[in-house]
Design goal:
The structure is a single chain. By secondary structure, this protein is of the alpha/beta class. The chain has one domain (2-138, 189-259): Alpha/Beta hydrolase fold, catalytic domain (Rossmann fold). Helices cover 35% and strands 23% of the residues. The chain has helices spanning 42-53, 79-93, 110-121, 138-148, 152-159, 178-184, 213-222, 243-259, and strands spanning 2-7, 13-19, 27-32, 56-61, 102-108, 126-132, 161-165, 173-177, 200-205, 228-233. The strands form 2 sheets. An 8-stranded mixed sheet has the order 1-2-4-3-5-6-9-10, sandwiched between helices. Strands 7-8 form a two-stranded antiparallel ribbon. The longest helix has 17 residues, at 243-259.
């Protein structure tokens, strides 16, 4: 395990951890956390563990503008910037002397969005992807918020900021400007989903109120027929913190990777 630093297109430092598996190496997996997250969160680590155990070296990084080791302030976080970090990291990883095998990409929530979008933008570079509880579009995110918290969007707009405790880091209070929600409306994975011809693993939980199963199903259905899998974890919320949910997520990713003909 080696901690490495690179700079994104804005000159901000991005901190990541490069880890090699035991035995032969099949490929290299880049992993990105979600909104306000970090590379060290339990649900991100189980993704990393699954890939390592299946012969993939991993680069698990902290996106900027979050609560982690990379540069930036959370209030400046935007879905587009989260994607830009993924793009910058994937391009950088492929230039490193240790890069080998196919490029695999995975991420949770906003990191899941970034995973899919990179594969849509650069399908010729990507060998396989595993978006976990991915944001599908800004419009669908707004629909989910209104569905599960009626009136919350209007209150957010009126207040100008949404103050909420982090589900992944208890005690951490997040101050999210309404501008972040407005920027999300510019993003949508569905129009280019037909470009996802590589093996794809999608997962979400039945109690996910941010990226619910019916939204992820839309992404799955928009993809071409082929090597694609969609798993739904019964009772799991958006962020996996319980041991049962974490074990199930790792188990399902493991099963998928073992079955791949790569």
């Amino acid at each position: 395990m080696e901690k490495l630093t690179l700079k994104n297109r804005k000159g901000q430092n991005i901190i990541g951890v490069f880890t090699k598996p035991d035995g032969d190496i099949k490929g290299t997996c880049v992993i990105e956390h979600g909104w306000s997250g970090s590379k060290d969160q339990a649900h991100v680590m189980v993704i990393q563990e699954a890939f390592l155990e299946n012969g993939y070296q991993t680069f698990n990084f902290d996106a900027t503008n979050s609560f982690n080791e990379s540069d930036g302030e959370y209030e400046n976080s935007r879905l587009g910037l989260h994607y830009e970090d993924m793009e910058d990291v994937c391009k950088w990883v492929q230039l490193q002397e240790w890069f080998t095998g196919v490029l695999a990409i995975s991420g949770h929530s906003m990191g899941g969005y970034a995973t899919v979008r990179y594969a849509e933008e650069f399908p010729e570079e990507v060998g396989l992807i595993a978006p976990i509880a991915p944001v599908v579009s800004g419009v669908l995110t707004a629909e989910a918020m209104e569905r599960y918290s009626p009136g919350a969007l209007q209150k957010w707009k009126e207040a100008g900021v949404l103050i909420k405790e982090s589900s992944g880091t208890p005690g951490l209070m997040k101050h999210s400007p309404y501008e972040a929600h407005v920027e999300w409306q510019d993003h949508d994975l569905l129009p280019n989903a037909q470009k996802l011809t590589m093996p794809v693993f999608l997962l979400t939980g039945t109690k996910d109120t941010s990226c619910p199963p019916d939204h992820v199903q839309q992404l799955f259905d928009a993809m071409p027929e082929g090597d694609k899998v969609f798993e739904i974890v019964e009772g799991a919320p958006h962020t996996y913190v319980g041991k049962g949910d974490l074990d199930q997520v790792k188990h399902l990713i493991n099963n998928w990777l073992k079955a791949l003909k790569i």
